[in-house]
Amino acid sequence: MQLGVRAQESSLSEVFAPGERLRMPHYQRSYSWGDREALDLLGDLIDAMDAAIAHFIGALVFVNGDEPGELEIVDGQQRLTTLTILLCVLRDLETDEARSRALHKLIADEDRPLLGEGANWRIALNYDVGAFFRDSIQTPGATLKLDNEPGESESQQKIIANAAAFYRELRDMPAERRRALADVVTGGCALVRVVVDNKDQGFKVFRVLNTRGKEPGAHDIIKTELFQRAKFTTAEANAYAERWAEHEALLGGGAFDDLLRQIRVIHDRSPKGDLYAGFQKAVLNKIDPRKFLDEMLPNYVAAFRIAETGQDTLGMGAPQSVLNSINQLRALEHKTWRAPAIQFIVERGLTDPKAPEFFAGLERVSYISQVMVQEREARNKKLARITEAVRNDRVLFAKSGPLSVSRDEARKLRDRLTTRFGTYGQRRAIALRLCAAIAGGRTIPPESDATVEHVLPRNPPEDSHWMITWPDPVKRREQCDTIGNFVLLTNKVNQKADRLDYRAKKEIYFNGGGGQEFALTRDLMEQDAWTSDVVRRRTEMLADILMQTWGLA
Fold it and tell me: Taking the model in full, what pTM does it have?
């Protein structure tokens, strides 16, 4: 049986031998190794050098490319690119010209102008970093001028950061030791070189190698599957790969994975288990790949960006009230609200007349689910009902619809708002929400420097005035974490106030501390003392404000 797979033990100098041309296929993800991974590899190579043993770098998988003599890298891009960066730094630090030229032969074949041939770079990265990599790393002397090349994309910045890290580690190493390291890199890196016969098989090998164990980037695996199903020509694949890279650059790799999870949640009634398997079943098996890439994905990317940032940077016409609701949602610990939010934006747009009502309702039920500490399963089911009803106003906005709150739920919520908020995330979300609900207040994005300050400290000093005004330890414990004891301050001012007595705290809050900028803090300007009765009355008042804001009073 012809398996169509050839494997052999090899060394890096053989993989990078003169005449070899290694290219990155369109479905590969961008360069993603950080300096931690790069320095770990360097450390392993130095250890191998000191121990006089080979260092095994694993299997490298290639598929025959479109042009004769060209190999596409199916698996091994991160290692090969990082090793190329290391070779370039070693080459540029080498003072012996003959040795430097020998190292460069592993990076490129020199151009031959008399024959009309340009340099053949041993490894060519994708279009988004290929030219940058040649100019900033592979060109002789380039790694000595890294300060001039900050890089624009995340991948470019990581390439420069890793080259700089290698340079810092190697510049003060004795020349003979650097040369010994170069020998280990070129001849002491043991690997298995695997070549598969055709691209379909290459796709499958890539998917198998990258979907087992921890997911390094599910969007890369899903992109591979989409491209294979679409049966693109090379030109089409390059064009779609460029669009995909633009989406990735806009969101970032980790956020792109998160977006795909949200798309899966929208299309899957029971989104559990592996992301790739679930996405394949709920989305890939039901939607034409070209339709998904052309029509659906760009809209999902735009919607996800608004949900993630709370800003309408793409000019989708979002009313300020909708952006306020989204920023209030972003403060929550749970993120289940994103699927219905994204679905509404994609299906109906932010200029839809019902958008303010929808997002206000989504914000209300999402806060209630956090405040009431609903079980994840119950919360997911409720928000899934909202997602399913996005297109149907009669169901979505019905009195007993998924955005509604029953009288019993409202009663329980009112009681809950007067009790303790035990976690930092709960306290900060409810304090930020109160700051927007109070008259004269405003919505504060969760990434702001606003922090929750306990007016009555959680652990007041034994010799402080707090022990006189709050002698009962039971009341201190019960009321310290209630909303009546919360104010908002910047982190710096919060640290200053810390466990001081009330009058000293007020002085810090309002005498240059900016406390008056926060609606939740402002009312303390008229409050002379801080007692149990004051906190209880303030708790009741703030609970009523939230209930009125949510239309539940």
Answer: 0.71
